[in-house]
Every structure is written in C-alpha cells, then in structure tokens.
Amino acid sequence: MDLPLEQYANVRIHMMPWCFTLKKSGNTLSTLPEKSVIGTSSLRRAAQLKKKFPHLEFKDIRGNLNTRLKKLDEQEDFSAIVLAAAGLRRMGWENRIGQILTSDECLYAVGQGALAVEVRTKDQDILSMVSALQDPETVLRCVAERAFMKRLEGGCSVPVAVSTVVKDLQLYLTGAVYSLDGSDSLKETMQSCVNFLQQEVEGPNDDVQHVGITALGVSQQALESAQCLGTGLADLLLSKGAKEILTVARQLNDSR
Asked: What positions does the domain Porphobilinogen deaminase N-terminal occupy (predicted)?
C-alpha cells in the first residue's frame, strides 16, 4: 500500500506471508542447483534472498497470478517464483505452495498488508466514524515503520525492509537496508513501550498526525513513542552507513 503521507488514515493489518512456487516438487531454495533462476518483481525480496541464497540467480517477473504461474510452468526461464501465499490460498491452489518465507528469512515492506481508509485530513466527522474500525496495535506498527522509512528517505527504488511486533506493551521494530545484490546490508532491532491499551479520549484535532496517520482515541504518548522508535532505528542505521548503501542502490537501479 502506497498512500501519500498526508492522506493516510486509520489502519488494520493482516500480514500475508510470501511463498515460493517451484517448478519441480520436492525442492527447496537451499537444494536448488547453482544458478537456478528465481522470479520476483521486488527489489527488496531479491536483495534479501540473494544474501541468504548466493548460489541462486534472480530475475524480474511481471503479470497477474495466472500469468506468472504460466511463465513458470511453460517456459524454461524460472526454477521458482515468489508469490503471496494468500493469493494462492484464495484461489484454492495451496498445492502450488512449495516453501513459505517467514519474517526471519525475508522482512517485508513498510506498511505491507495494512488496510487504510483514506479521508480528507480535516473531515472530523468521517475521521470519528472510521476510527471505530481502527486497530490500535496496527496503527502503532505502521507509525513506527513509516517513520523509519521517512527518515531513511526510502521508497520502492531501494531495498528497505521492516518487521514489527507488539508484545507485553512493547513495540519491537526490526529494520534493514540492503545493496541490490544483497552483499552489503545493515539490520538492527529496537523496542519502545507503547501502552496503547490506556487510550485517551481526545476531542477533534486536525493537527495531530504522525507520519500522516491520524488515529483518534489512541494515546498520543504511544503514537509519539512509535514514531520516535522508527526515527531512532533509522538514525542508528544511518550512523552505521545506511545512506551510502541506499545511495549506491538507488543509482544502480536508476541506471538499469
């Protein structure tokens, strides 16, 4: 999901893991022959998987679900392709799932799986109405993730990846940046207290936004903590050389 920062409203998340569909059953990525070609349209996933499976090659693949599966089955270009597991399950094609990718193996994109209601930023009536749909945990996760990407000045042209989880009122954010070939990377995890269960009942305030997210009824202290967490983690990676990694990645991607 890619909405302008100033228009991002209330969110609810359902994370959808990625999976591999393999041409030959019984294989896994680690057992595929050297220089086997894997199809994926994501710079972020390709960079992470190149780092984990350096014996494999990765090639861009486009099209809808049927088109990509047809390319895998009928052409010799690919040994496996990366797809959203939810899409295959929705179509009743679970048997095409050869290997599930966990967040430990491949971090996801900022805001991936988040559903947002886009409204006018000063329309308090609608904001109050849709706030009944929001999930406070998801709001905080998205605030932290978006603050992380904003400070890094990241986007779809560079491999920036995240993973968030809330446990015992602590928000854990893992963030990483990668070179296009995965050979150079930085990855760190930070946490912050976000006691979102103690929600404040706030009146209308169209100036209260956190990286473009308006969340009425969620503690402002928790929102600020989540935003500071994302910014703080980005600053940590920047201090270790993240800007240089992303600059080179962006230049190489633009030159393609």
From this structure: 23-127
pTM of the model: 0.85
Q: Which CATH number fits the domain 18-100, given the four candidates 3.40.190.10, 3.40.50.300, 1.10.10.10, 2.170.150.70?
A: 3.40.190.10
175 SS3 class: strand
**pLDDT tens across the length of the chain (256 residues):** 444 433 444 443 344 568 878 887 777 888 999 999 999 989 999 999 999 999 999 999 999 999 999 999 998 999 999 998 888 998 999 999 999 988 788 999 999 888 888 888 788 898 888 888 888 898 999 999 999 999 999 888 899 999 999 999 999 999 999 999 999 999 999 999 988 554 444 444 444 568 888 887 788 889 999 999 999 999 999 999 999 999 999 999 888 7
H or E element: which one contains 37? strand 37-39
Distance between CA atoms of 144 and 162, rounded to whole angstroms?
10
Q: Where are the alpha helices (DSSP H) in 173-219?
A: none
The dotted CATH code for 5-14+109-254 is 3.30.160.40
